[in-house]
Amino acid sequence: MSAEIETLQRMIDESERIVFFGGAGVSTESGIPDFRSVDGLYNQKYDFPPETILSHTFYMRHTDEFYRFYKDKMLCLDAKPNDAHKKLAEMEEKGKLTAVVTQNIDGLHQAAGSKAVYELHGSVLRNYCTKCKKFYSASYILESIGVPKCDACGGMIKPDVVLYEEGLDNDTITKSIKAISQADMLIIGGTSLAVYPAAGLIDYYNGDKLVLINKTTTPMDSKANLVINDSIGQVFSAIKI
């Protein structure tokens, strides 16, 4: 066991209110592409950049094109939880972890068994009719032809994900801030901390066990008590709870 892992293990052992703040790097190890890595969505060829397609304006004006991209690249329904997801769920079950705050929209934390999950950017697993609010599964969206329509009223169905130009859910923000501010340990994993306002939430942490686990450096590295530049799945698989 490396010195970094030993330090992480000791910090976890000494903590009782751990919060995990995660980004795309947690899901890439389950085969879900991110936006900014070498193999990410930004490096594939489309008529428009993903950031444009996944905006509120584009969704409203070019709904057909939005859904062609969304179904093709955003619905990874066969993905399974990896070691990081599973270990976080175990930490919650053992009473060590109080919340997962995630920027991901894939629902893999819940699939692994986590209960207290705050999804800052929503979830592809929740979809609703913009007219009557009837709920639809991700499978319904994936299997639909063209723009998904409500089978009850004919209204257009929208994924419950936060698009560019849209604000975060206030209740989710409030719960995330409360969990982070009350944490005695904050583990940040799989994120470059480049997406705001989500990344700004970590400023509410007041403790002395700030851990950053990411393959590359982040703007917060100098403020962390421990930095591990490695695969988050491999790091968590080495931890004993």
TrEMBL record:
<feature type="binding site">
    <location>
        <position position="129"/>
    </location>
    <ligand>
        <name>Zn(2+)</name>
    </ligand>
</feature>
<dbReference type="GO" id="GO:0005737">
    <property type="term" value="C:cytoplasm"/>
</dbReference>
<dbReference type="Pfam" id="PF02146">
    <property type="entry name" value="SIR2"/>
</dbReference>
<feature type="binding site">
    <location>
        <position position="105"/>
    </location>
    <ligand>
        <name>NAD(+)</name>
    </ligand>
</feature>
<feature type="binding site">
    <location>
        <position position="191"/>
    </location>
    <ligand>
        <name>NAD(+)</name>
    </ligand>
</feature>
<feature type="binding site">
    <location>
        <position position="35"/>
    </location>
    <ligand>
        <name>NAD(+)</name>
    </ligand>
</feature>
<keyword id="KW-0862">Zinc</keyword>
<dbReference type="InterPro" id="IPR026591">
    <property type="entry name" value="Sirtuin_cat_small_dom_sf"/>
</dbReference>
<feature type="binding site">
    <location>
        <position position="232"/>
    </location>
    <ligand>
        <name>NAD(+)</name>
    </ligand>
</feature>
<feature type="binding site">
    <location>
        <position position="106"/>
    </location>
    <ligand>
        <name>nicotinamide</name>
    </ligand>
</feature>
<dbReference type="GO" id="GO:0070403">
    <property type="term" value="F:NAD+ binding"/>
</dbReference>
<protein>
    <recommendedName>
        <fullName>NAD-dependent protein deacetylase</fullName>
        <ecNumber>2.3.1.286</ecNumber>
    </recommendedName>
</protein>
<feature type="binding site">
    <location>
        <position position="24"/>
    </location>
    <ligand>
        <name>NAD(+)</name>
    </ligand>
</feature>
<dbReference type="GO" id="GO:0008270">
    <property type="term" value="F:zinc ion binding"/>
</dbReference>
<feature type="domain" description="Deacetylase sirtuin-type">
    <location>
        <begin position="1"/>
        <end position="241"/>
    </location>
</feature>
<feature type="binding site">
    <location>
        <position position="153"/>
    </location>
    <ligand>
        <name>Zn(2+)</name>
    </ligand>
</feature>
<feature type="binding site">
    <location>
        <position position="35"/>
    </location>
    <ligand>
        <name>nicotinamide</name>
    </ligand>
</feature>
<keyword id="KW-0520">NAD</keyword>
<keyword id="KW-0963">Cytoplasm</keyword>
<feature type="binding site">
    <location>
        <position position="121"/>
    </location>
    <ligand>
        <name>NAD(+)</name>
    </ligand>
</feature>
<dbReference type="InterPro" id="IPR003000">
    <property type="entry name" value="Sirtuin"/>
</dbReference>
<feature type="binding site">
    <location>
        <position position="106"/>
    </location>
    <ligand>
        <name>NAD(+)</name>
    </ligand>
</feature>
<dbReference type="InterPro" id="IPR026590">
    <property type="entry name" value="Ssirtuin_cat_dom"/>
</dbReference>
<feature type="binding site">
    <location>
        <position position="36"/>
    </location>
    <ligand>
        <name>NAD(+)</name>
    </ligand>
</feature>
<keyword id="KW-0479">Metal-binding</keyword>
<feature type="binding site">
    <location>
        <position position="192"/>
    </location>
    <ligand>
        <name>NAD(+)</name>
    </ligand>
</feature>
<feature type="binding site">
    <location>
        <position position="28"/>
    </location>
    <ligand>
        <name>NAD(+)</name>
    </ligand>
</feature>
<dbReference type="InterPro" id="IPR029035">
    <property type="entry name" value="DHS-like_NAD/FAD-binding_dom"/>
</dbReference>
<dbReference type="InterPro" id="IPR028628">
    <property type="entry name" value="Sirtuin_class_U"/>
</dbReference>
<feature type="binding site">
    <location>
        <position position="150"/>
    </location>
    <ligand>
        <name>Zn(2+)</name>
    </ligand>
</feature>
<dbReference type="InterPro" id="IPR050134">
    <property type="entry name" value="NAD-dep_sirtuin_deacylases"/>
</dbReference>
<feature type="active site" description="Proton acceptor">
    <location>
        <position position="121"/>
    </location>
</feature>
<comment type="similarity">
    <text>Belongs to the sirtuin family. Class U subfamily.</text>
</comment>
<feature type="binding site">
    <location>
        <position position="103"/>
    </location>
    <ligand>
        <name>NAD(+)</name>
    </ligand>
</feature>
<feature type="binding site">
    <location>
        <position position="214"/>
    </location>
    <ligand>
        <name>NAD(+)</name>
    </ligand>
</feature>
<feature type="binding site">
    <location>
        <position position="132"/>
    </location>
    <ligand>
        <name>Zn(2+)</name>
    </ligand>
</feature>
<dbReference type="GO" id="GO:0017136">
    <property type="term" value="F:histone deacetylase activity, NAD-dependent"/>
</dbReference>
<comment type="function">
    <text>NAD-dependent protein deacetylase which modulates the activities of several enzymes which are inactive in their acetylated form.</text>
</comment>
<feature type="binding site">
    <location>
        <position position="105"/>
    </location>
    <ligand>
        <name>nicotinamide</name>
    </ligand>
</feature>
<keyword id="KW-0808">Transferase</keyword>
